[in-house]
């Protein structure tokens, strides 16, 4: 049995500590995370191993010393109770705080947290479509886990270009500080810690790129020796196994390692699989290694419904987001090909491509032609670059064949046709460009180059096209060089992030951002931009979705305008291939309106494979009509779509909730009007006797400015360097609207250090609020509880406010009860809910006048002290009965979980036997033993975890919080004396 619980006070090494967290330790004991309370250790944090401590005295609640509260309107008591209320969150499946992040809450954003909190182990793949706000959804879940004491240590793994964006979102909206461990951040950490120390243990919450981790073998050892409460892998499709790959990539192996280093695992991706069973199984095995026996062949019976996945498209949540999602407008611009372009098309078709020195008609010829054609469909400049490279390659061969000479002559003709287009300074014959130029100048489009709040994104997959556009648009639209910028994958991650930040700042001169498809994944480009142009059409439906999602996303204030450019050729072969790309654009629109997932049409779920498939359509000579029929058929045949079929199976098996997810919000009642009121009252109280810190309050703006004292400065070293104040002066604002404005102002700042909001969010999760709560909780001293008087009670009434927790074996509170034991005279104690009693007794901020130390109060205190053990006994009996019922329910759930694990383990061993059937007996035996040991280890670990999580400690833990009596009790005591 655990003799202590989170929130209990204990005397360790003759000092009093508040136990914040309890974790099992490898020596069979417990690791206690504590904050100092008594004078010598106040402001200090420490870890204690119970196996190494001689005595840990947990204070007996029945012996709690009652002390009269002399603070004005009993502020000290009300603050004490409120601080404890904010920290006593049970591990239930309700939303308590996450909904209050700085965001425009939409019900669907709560669903991932609600689904994950129902699991004994919160592990989930959030696979919502592009632009629905997966980062915010993950932040809500992380907030709920932090409130439950299950989020002290967090690791986020994402793409290089996303590090800063993710870090800012979680800090400014949820006050979750992630220290960025990029190359600069790691160097900074190494300078601050001894050489042999683990950098991942230095910061509790950090963010790092997957490429940084995979490229440095040193980090593997660090990862294997670190543990987190929560690990988040963003864009997790990059760590999934791929169909046809025999082994695992370094990223996949790294993800497998990380999956075993935390209780909670969140995977985020809008494209979470490549359509194959194996790819999907690899992600599911990260979340639950017991779920699947054979990654290539499995059925719903292998895992049943575990609620491991949630996936929604824009169409699914449209009824919830009228104000937050604008319906996009699609503009299709068509232009007949010019005579010069038609000449280039014919020249391309006339090239006799060679392979290995020989010209071979058929599929290989077509594939080479299509490869060059792809550049031509982008721009003459891109096609010319590819043509010249091919000519150089063939011409530099020591002894080219006759057929290669023939190909070079054909390429020269093609290059001649292309130069006629590229050397024209006016680009008159580049039909697609001229159509775009006319549209940009048209009054219907109403775009002005001098309007800083109306910017333009133009996508092309070819860098040569982007560079050509940069020069040509500047000349034709009379734009300055600094008004156009190119974003492409060859830039360093810091350069990419800086350019994206500049594009989102109103005072930056950039008006047009020319992007390659590196910018199509994850980046927010919708600030001051709702217009997007596909200068060339992607050959992948997933790229369509990713590109459009940069401006057509949650938070877009204007109707997105998506522009497609179509060239209408007369050369038959070219005409057909261009028409196939038009069909892809139409299917993307169809998916956005109806299906949700455009990748259902091609069923390969990987951009490169989609390009291969479209290329194959063209190489086979399929007509546009045949291609469209094939796509429509694929979209209706669910059997071909293994990945999405499995996504639906792994999702929750519950019917859609008949009520909104917001009905699952359970926000505890507060004794204060607001967080601002609580903070202001707390700082006033804490600074009454001695000056703890310098602070000022601004009621109109709901801002509190505070200079951090030394102990708080130490705590705040865990914050990202960018949000640590140089002068230790911090401004906290309780208004979400004002915070949202501060985030927007910071995003537009020019200097990188100013792009973080100057204001911090004043709400329960901020580290400074945590520090204030700790300070408040130590006000009454060791093993003491306040006594206060309320004229609203009956004259002979005695009441004791009690809190009880029932933890599991991991020390996590499963059941939290606040009750008030009260009686009249010497009668038996009855229990009343805290909320009902607080209302009845007028117990809230500034709700009760304090008469100070009146005559007879000492005698009243002694009488209350004498009655206290009986009140604790009543609470103990109540909690034992409640614990027995609760434990019985958990036991039933536990047995179901253990039976399911037994079944799944049997299937994995059975599958292993089948896999090794055809191998030699000696080899079979060795491999069977090795793999069987792995299976047993996985299931034993998971079984132990489930037992520890779903088994309650036999005895509840009780804390006396306060005693309340009627003022006449003191008068009666005086009269009796």
Description:
- The protein contains 30 helices and 30 strands.
- With 977 residues, the protein is an alpha/beta fold.
- The strands form six sheets. The chain has a seven-stranded parallel beta sheet with strand order 9-10-8-11-12-7-13, sandwiched between helices. It has a six-stranded mixed beta sheet with strand order 6-26-30-27-28-29, sandwiched between helices. Strands 14-21-20-17-19-18 form a six-stranded parallel beta sheet, sandwiched between helices.
- α1 (75-87) crosses α23 and α13 (380-395) packs antiparallel against α14 (402-422).
- The protein is elongated, with a radius of gyration of 33 Å.
- The model is unreliable at 652-656 and 973-977 (pLDDT under 50).
Strands of the widest sheet, in order across it, are 9-10-8-11-12-7-13
Count of alpha/pi helices: 30
Structural class: alpha/beta
Q: Rounded to an integer, what's the Rg over CA atoms?
A: 33 Å
Mean pLDDT: 85
Residue windows where pLDDT falls under 50 for at least 5 positions: 652-656, 973-977
Roughly how much helix do the residues carry, as a percent range? 40-55%
Shape: elongated
β-sheet strand percentage: 15-25%
**First-to-last CA distance:** 46 Å
How would you summarize this macromolecular structure in one to three sentences?
The chain is α/β, with parallel strands linked by helices and 977 residues long. It is built from 30 helices and 30 strands.
């Amino acid at each position: 049995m655990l003799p202590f619980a989170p929130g209990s006070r204990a005397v360790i090494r003759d000092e009093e500590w508040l136990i914040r967290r309890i974790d099992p330790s490898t020596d069979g004991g417990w690791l206690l995370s504590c904050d100092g309370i008594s004078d010598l250790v106040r402001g200090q944090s420490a870890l204690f191993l119970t196996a190494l401590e001689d005595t840990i005295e947990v204070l007996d609640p029945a012996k709690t010393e009652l002390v009269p509260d002399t603070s004005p309107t009993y502020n000290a008591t009300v603050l004490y109770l409120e601080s404890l209320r904010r920290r006593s969150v049970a591990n239930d499946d309700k939303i308590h705080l996450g909904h209050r992040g700085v965001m425009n809450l939409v019900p669907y954003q709560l669903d991932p947290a609600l689904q994950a909190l129902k699991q004994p182990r919160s592990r989930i793949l959030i696979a919502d479509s592009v632009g629905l706000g997966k980062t915010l959804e993950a932040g809500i879940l992380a907030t709920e886990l932090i409130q439950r004491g299950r989020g002290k240590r967090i690791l986020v793994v994402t793409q290089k270009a996303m590090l800063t964006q993710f870090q800012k979102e979680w800090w400014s909206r949820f006050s979750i500080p992630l220290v960025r461990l990029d190359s600069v951040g790691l160097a900074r950490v190494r300078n601050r810690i001894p050489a042999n120390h683990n950098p991942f243990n230095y910061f509790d919450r950090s963010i790092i790129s997957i490429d940084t981790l995979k490229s440095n073998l040193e980090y593997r050892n660090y990862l294997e020796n670190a543990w987190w409460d929560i690990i988040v892998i963003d864009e997790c499709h990059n760590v999934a196994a791929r169909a046809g790959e025999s082994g695992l990539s370094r990223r996949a192996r790294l993800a497998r390692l990380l999956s075993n280093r935390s209780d909670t695992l969140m995977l985020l991706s809008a494209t979470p699989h490549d359509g194959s069973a194996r790819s999907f199984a690899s992600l599911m095995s990260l979340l639950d290694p017991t779920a699947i026996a054979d990654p290539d062949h499995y059925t719903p019976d292998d895992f049943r419904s575990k609620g491991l996945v949630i996936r929604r498209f824009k169409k699914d949540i449209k009824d919830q987001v009228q104000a937050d999602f604008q319906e996009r407008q699609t503009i299709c611009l068509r232009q007949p090909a010019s005579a010069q372009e038609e000449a280039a098309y014919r020249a391309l078709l006339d090239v006799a491509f060679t392979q290995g020195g020989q010209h071979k008609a058929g599929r290989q010829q077509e594939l080479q032609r299509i490869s060059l054609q792809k550049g031509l469909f982008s721009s003459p400049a891109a096609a010319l670059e590819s043509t010249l490279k091919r000519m150089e390659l063939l011409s530099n061969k020591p002894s080219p064949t006759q057929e290669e000479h023939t190909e070079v002559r054909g390429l020269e003709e093609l290059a001649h046709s292309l130069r006629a287009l590229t050397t024209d300074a006016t680009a008159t014959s580049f039909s697609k460009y001229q159509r775009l130029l006319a549209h940009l100048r048209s009054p219907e489009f109403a775009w002005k180059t001098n309007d800083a709040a109306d910017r333009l994104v133009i996508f092309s997959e070819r860098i040569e096209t982007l560079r050509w556009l940069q020069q040509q648009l500047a000349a034709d639209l009379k734009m300055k060089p600094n008004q156009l910028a190119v974003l492409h994958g060859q830039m360093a991650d810091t350069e990419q992030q800086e350019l994206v930040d500049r594009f989102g700042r109103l005072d930056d001169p950039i008006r047009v951002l020319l992007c390659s498809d590196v910018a199509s994944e994850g980046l927010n480009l919708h600030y001051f931009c709702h217009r997007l142009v596909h200068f060339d059409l992607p050959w992948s439906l997933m790229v369509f979705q990713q590109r459009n999602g940069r401006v057509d996303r949650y938070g877009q204030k204007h109707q997105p305008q998506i522009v497609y450019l179509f060239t209408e050729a007369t050369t038959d072969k070219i005409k057909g291939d261009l028409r196939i790309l038009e069909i892809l654009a139409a299917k993307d629109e169809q998916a956005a309106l109806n299906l949700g997932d455009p990748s259902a049409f091609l069923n390969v779920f990987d951009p490169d494979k989609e390009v291969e498939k479209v290329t194959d359509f063209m190489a086979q000579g399929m007509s546009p009509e045949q291609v469209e029929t094939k796509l429509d058929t694929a979209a209706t045949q669910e059997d071909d779509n293994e990945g999405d079929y499995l996504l639906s199976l792994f999702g929750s098996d519950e019917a859609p909730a008949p009520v909104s997810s917001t009905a699952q919000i359970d926000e505890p009642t507060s004794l204060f009007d607001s967080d601002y009121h609580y903070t202001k009252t707390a700082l006033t109280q804490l600074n009454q006797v001695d000056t703890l810190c310098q602070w000022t309050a601004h009621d109109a703006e709901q801002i509190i400015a505070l200079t951090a004292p030394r102990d708080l400065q130490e705590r705040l070293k865990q914050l990202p360097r960018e949000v640590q104040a140089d002068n230790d002066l911090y401004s906290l604002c309780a208004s979400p609207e004002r915070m949202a404005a501060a985030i927007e102002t910071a995003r537009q700042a020019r200097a990188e250090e100013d792009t973080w909001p100057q204001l911090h969010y004043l709400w329960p999760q901020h580290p400074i609020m945590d520090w204030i709560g700790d300070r408040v909780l130590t006000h009454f001293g060791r093993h003491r509880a306040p006594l206060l008087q309320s004229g609203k009670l009956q004259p002979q009434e005695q009441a004791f406010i009690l809190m009880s927790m029932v933890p599991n074996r991991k020390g996590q509170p499963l059941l939290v009860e606040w009750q008030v034991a009260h009686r009249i005279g010497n009668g038996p104690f009855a229990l009343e809910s805290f909320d009902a009693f607080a209302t009845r007794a007028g117990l809230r901020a500034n709700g009760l006048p304090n008469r100070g130390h009146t005559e007879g109060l000492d005698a009243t205190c002694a009488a209350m002290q004498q009655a206290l053990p009986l009140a604790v006994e009543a609470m103990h009996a109540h909690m034992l009965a409640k614990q027995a019922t609760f434990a019985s329910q958990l036991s039933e759930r536990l047995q179901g979980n253990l039976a399911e694990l037994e079944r799944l383990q049997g299937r994995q061993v059975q599958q292993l036997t089948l896999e090794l059937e055809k191998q030699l007996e000696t080899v079979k035996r060795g491999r069977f033993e090795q793999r069987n040991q792995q299976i047993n280890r996985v299931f034993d670990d998971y079984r132990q975890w489930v037992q520890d999580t779903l088994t309650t400690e036999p005895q509840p833990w009780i804390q006396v919080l306060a005693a309340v009596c009627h003022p006449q009790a003191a008068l009666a005591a005086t009269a009796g004396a």
